[in-house]
Amino acid sequence: MDHFFDTICAPATSVGSGAVSLIRISGPEALSVVDRVVRFRAGTAAESPGYSLKFGEIAGLDEVLVSLFRAPHSYTGEDAAEICCHASPFIVSSLLDKLTEAGCRLAEPGEFTRRAFINGKMDLAQAEAVADVIAASSAAQHRVAMNQLRGGYSAELRDLRKQLLELTALMELELDFSEEEVEFADRSRLRGLLDTACSHCRQLAESFRLGNAIRNGVPVAIVGAPNSGKSTLLNALLRDDRAIVSDVPGTTRDTVEETCVIDGVLFRFIDTAGIRASEDEVERLGIERTFRKISEAEIVLGVIDATDAQEAVDKAVEMITGKVDQTHQKLILLANKIDLRSGDVSQFSPSSSFAGLTGESPAFPISAKTGQGLDELRSALVARAGVAFVSGTLVTNARHAAALRAAADSLRTVSDGLDRGLPNDLLAEDLRSALASLGTITGEITTDEVLGEIFSRFCIGK
């Protein structure tokens, strides 16, 4: 841990990709190091108050603007500075060399945020949210990450731990007075709290399915028979020729995945091999992979060729619906190639049963080729994703979800123990286990190995 008392530096922006770059410095000698490298027109960094800007010059290299922060009022909670220079790779590299010669060392990945956590500027859940905010590529991702960064999620967990800590303390106090048979912990209150806490933990853990989908993109599998227009639909949704389109059935042998943001929601579209009986070994492997992708998807787009005979349509619908778990997944049937279907098409609408074409299953009439019905499909995708209707906290981190499930299991064990009349020492042990699981999320209980793994995934300079 001694190296966390060093003064560190790192670029906080990409080098050479803009007009300016930002070099971040933090540690006990941060302001003194700046004075050794930068000559200011008036005064020094060490003499300046926090939250101040100073114009200076690095001899023979560049003119810079330096932001100064004094502990504890900085991102890391330490004395810190940010040097804004021109984005030349030569300038940035030379400046880093000068800073290291003046007493800094180069920061490790995530070290600035790790110091913020160690110095109490944020808890571990908030620190992990920093990486999510940086990586957010959609409005939904940003909204969820910002809620976690601002501490809404952590506040829920703190309230839960506070109540459980109080009851654990009372139960352990009873152990000290076991000979007097004194009961400090109200059993009816304990049971009610256990049920509420266990339910809350499970609800948060279950929200990981949607939270993970928002964080990594809502997975949408495009499935159907060969030549039904799946690849054409993928290209149309992406507005790009990403998948190979051919009149030859079975052209798509492997899955093709691409992401696209629709109305602020990131979707991960997966074009799959056409489902049919095949003797071709490679095609059969592709079809097996299709079935796996269907099981992993939040939303399944079942593409049906509207020009097929009724018997073929019925078979396609049966094949698709038989592979989708509609208890946990959302299925949208699409009657594609509507532009090639003869007769009156005014009868076709998303709320209809496609005039008997798809039996009892409602279908969207679309033409992936002409774009007909795709705007309605995009709106349906956003609605089915459910992101716009989510209120409250979503768990987006697999580590958090596992800890919440472990806490819920421990609380359920305590509840069962109460029913069986188990002694307080056993009940208190399971309560402590639940508290420990919750504590690993916010960082009250953690190890250097866990912290190293978490912050190693951060970028340098954050």
Question: Would you kindly provide a written description of the structure presented here, covering whatever features stand out?
Answer:
It is a single chain. This protein has 462 residues and is α/β, with parallel strands linked by helices. The strands form 2 sheets. A 7-stranded mixed β-sheet has the order 3-4-5-6-2-1-7, with helices on one face. It has helices at 30-37, 89-101, 111-118, 124-135, 139-149, 152-176, 187-206, 208-216, 230-238, 281-296, 310-321, 374-385, 398-420, 424-442, 448-455; strands at 8-11, 20-26, 39-40, 52-58, 62-69, 80-86, 105-106, 218-224, 256-262, 265-271, 299-305, 330-336, 363-365. Mean pLDDT is 82; it is low at 248-253 and 344-360. The chain has 15 helices and 13 strands. Helix content is 44%, strand content 16%.
Q: What would a concise description of this structure say?
A:
44% of the residues lie in helices and 16% in strands. The chain is built from 15 helices and 13 strands.
What characteristics describe this protein?
462 residues, alpha/beta, 7-stranded mixed beta sheet, 6-stranded mixed beta sheet, 13 strands, 44% helix, flat
Blueprint of the fold:
Blueprint: E1 8-11, E2 20-26, H1 30-37, E3 39-40, E4 52-58, E5 62-69, E6 80-86, H2 89-101, E7 105-106, H3 111-118, H4 124-135, H5 139-149, H6 152-176, H7 187-206, H8 208-216, E8 218-224, H9 230-238, E9 256-262, E10 265-271, H10 281-296, E11 299-305, H11 310-321, E12 330-336, E13 363-365, H12 374-385, H13 398-420, H14 424-442, H15 448-455
Parallel strand pairs: 1-7, 8-10, 8-11, 11-12, 12-13
Antiparallel strand pairs: 1-2, 2-6, 3-4, 4-5, 5-6, 9-10
Helix pairs in contact: 4-5, 6-7, 6-14, 7-13, 13-14
